[in-house]
Specification:
This protein is of the alpha/beta class. The protein has 5 domains: 150 residues, DNA polymerase, domain 1 (Orthogonal Bundle); 89 residues, 2-Layer Sandwich (Beta Polymerase, domain 2), CATH 3.30.460; 73 residues, Beta Polymerase, domain 3, CATH 3.30.210.10; 193 residues, Alpha-Beta Barrel (TIM Barrel), CATH 3.20.20; 42 residues, no CATH class. Helices cover 45% and strands 14% of the residues. It is built from 25 helices and 16 strands. The strands form 5 sheets. A 5-stranded mixed beta sheet has the order 2-4-7-6-5, with helices on both faces. Helix 1 packs across helix 5 and helix 13 crosses helix 15. The two termini are 27 Å apart.
């Protein structure tokens, strides 16, 4: 039997979570398996090998029970709990459960009462009229269900929306609601408030003197394509871009409880509830119930919620279940100083009209200086990147002189010259080495020949690394490798190879906010990894400091996937014979 990959193990845990949810298991159990699936999926080493070595419980979210299931999966090819649940619950019901507006209870109701056990069976039930027999499936509900099934058939399940696009859609909605005369407090919640790199939908929490009027105002915005619900407690709408927005109008003295609850994340809220239970308290969106007195505390602010639990207020960006609760306790040492947009000192990746950008270097430098930056690197695409204007070697040499001259004219600002060179199929850069040596900064990227077989793509990357560093087994320091979602990049062998030689794969689920020039989005996402700002007066200081920062990253910086240890601490503790 072939070894189970991390992706296969994660899929098995996800399936088990879905089956438990359909079976009516307690939510904590469901969340535990989903968290375990995420841990397995994110792991940079073989989780099955860790299980065989007796070390798998050192990973976050993996305890003895999950270790036993991993061992069973390794020995028998399946998880006994999943086998038992599949005998009770059709696997096809998982797809029904995931439809918009459904969930485990509604899907189970369809199965128990009319035998719907798959999407095809649900389509048949809609067409032959059997849904009319069920409460809650009137004419309008059936029309909406037909649309959902059609969209699911054509496009698959709904996708998450990249952060920058969600922000663009949410900001005008928030502004319109806040300007309404019936609005009191209006705040965004959910993953958008945590500034995750992508969001599924937008949650808005509000207080109002006239809740139906505020809900109607949302439903009537031009951005809204359809309204699935609008009433006394809020509204649910879908924008023309397909983004779903859920408005919840609550009482003023409950605003803090609801905002905290719906900001999430699930991992954060589960940890918060478990911590509260140990203090004799129960936390929900309705308030904080004290077991001793039977009284429920309703809070108008989040600060009151966290204070009642003995914690400092935790910024939304840190609420990911990664140790922030411990840091927020009086004995926890305090939460980190978070990076703000104002902490940015420069930008080392930018394109101008010389290649595929939309502005000149001078315009971009002035704009960067106006925004408070101190340096900017011009890194236009190279001669063979496959799109935009081709920058030949001779043109880049001219460009070096132009940027150097422009830099002399810029008072109090450092303009650097670099390139985003293409890695050719043989692994060499598309500029000669002597030209690259004249530059301040070089970014190497794969921009052509995406259809190469995986082994050839791997050989291409090996050649590129060896071209720069020589024939070594590992690069001398970690180098981030940002990739899109092309098949050569997400291939297990390629990503495994990258890690083996010291590269750090960074694959975004949709597209990178950084690529869109979204500095604010990048900073907000960056904040969640406990990064700290470093005061640097100029670009030269940044370049001199890079070796020290790399050493700190490897020796000191805690990583959540390594149980908050640095890479070398983890290696010494776990991987050294």
């Amino acid at each position: 039997m072939a070894d189970f990959t991390n992706a296969q193990i994660a899929a098995a845990f996800e399936e088990l979570a879905d089956l438990y949810e359909l079976d009516g298991a307690v939510q904590y159990r469901v969340i535990a398996y989903r968290n375990a699936a995420r841990t397995v999926r994110d792991s940079s080493v073989s989780v099955m090998q860790l299980a065989r070595d007796g070390k798998v419980t050192e990973l976050p979210n993996i305890g003895k029970t999950l270790e036993e299931k991993l061992i069973a999966l390794d020995e028998t090819g399946d998880i006994p709990s999943s086998v038992k649940l599949r005998a009770k619950i059709p696997v096809g019901l998982i797809s029904v459960m995931r439809l918009p507006g459904f969930g485990p209870k509604r899907a189970r109701k369809l199965y128990d009462e009319i035998g719907v056990d798959s999407l095809d069976a649900l389509r048949a039930a809609v067409e032959d009229g059997r849904l009319k027999e069920l409460r809650g499936f009137g004419v309008k509900a059936q029309e909406n269900l037909r649309k959902v099934l059609a969209e699911h058939q054509e496009d698959g399940p709904s996708q998450r929306v990249v952060l920058s696009r969600a922000v663009e859609a949410a900001v005008p909605v928030l502004e319109a609601l806040r300007a309404h005369p019936a609005a009191d407090r209006v705040e965004v919640a959910g993953s958008l408030r945590r500034w995750t790199d992508s969001v599924k939908d937008v949650d808005i929490i509000a207080t109002s003197s006239d809740a139906p009027a505020l809900a109607k105002a949302l439903a009537e915005l031009e951005i809204v394509e359809s309204v699935s619900q609008s009433g006394d407690v809020g509204a649910r709408v879908t924008t023309h871009t397909g983004l779903k927005i859920d408005l919840k109008v609550v009482e003023p003295d409950q605003f803090g409880n609801v905002l905290q609850h719906f900001t999430g994340s699930k991992a954060h809220n589960v940890s918060l509830r478990e911590s509260a239970v140990r203090r004799g308290l129960h936390v929900s969106e309705y308030g904080i119930l004290d077991d001793a007195t039977g009284e429920t505390l309703r809070c108008s602010t989040e600060e009151e919620v966290y204070a009642a639990l003995g914690l400092d207020w935790i910024p939304p960006e840190l609420r990911e279940g990664r140790g922030e609760l411990e840091a927020a306790t009086p004995a926890g040492g305090g939460l980190p100083d978070l990076i703000e947009v104002g902490d940015l000192r420069g930008d080392l990746h930018s394109h101008t009209t010389t290649s595929d950008g939309t502005e000149t270097a001078e315009t971009m430098a002035e704009a960067a200086r106006e925004r408070g930056l101190e340096y900017l690197a011009i890194t236009d695409h190279s001669a063979s990147h496959g799109f935009g204007d081709h920058v030949t070697a001779d043109r880049l040499r001219e460009r070096v002189e132009e940027i150097r001259a422009l830099n002399e004219r810029l008072d109090g600002f450092e303009l650097l010259i670099g390139t985003e060179t293409n890695i050719l199929p043989d692994g060499s850069p598309d500029y000669p080495d002597d030209l690259l040596a004249e530059l301040d900064w070089v970014i190497a990227s794969v921009h052509t020949s995406f259809a190469m077989p995986r082994r050839e793509m791997t050989a291409r990357m090996v050649a590129a690394v060896e071209h720069r560093f020589g024939p070594v087994n590992r690069v001398p320091r970690p180098i981030e490798w940002l990739s899109d979602n092309g098949s050569p990049y997400v291939a297990r062998e390629t990503r495994g190879f990258a890690r083996d030689i010291g590269l750090v794969p960074r694959t975004t689920p949709l597209e990178s906010p950084q690529s869109n020039g979204m500095a604010e989005a990048f900073v907000r996402t960056f904040r969640r990894d406990y990064a700290r700002p470093s005061g640097c007066p100029d670009a030269a200081t940044v370049l001199r400091s890079l070796p020290t920062w790399f050493t700190h990253y490897n020796e000191v910086h805690p990583h959540r996937a390594l149980r908050y240890r640095s890479p070398r601490q983890f290696i010494r503790a776990n991987l050294t014979p």
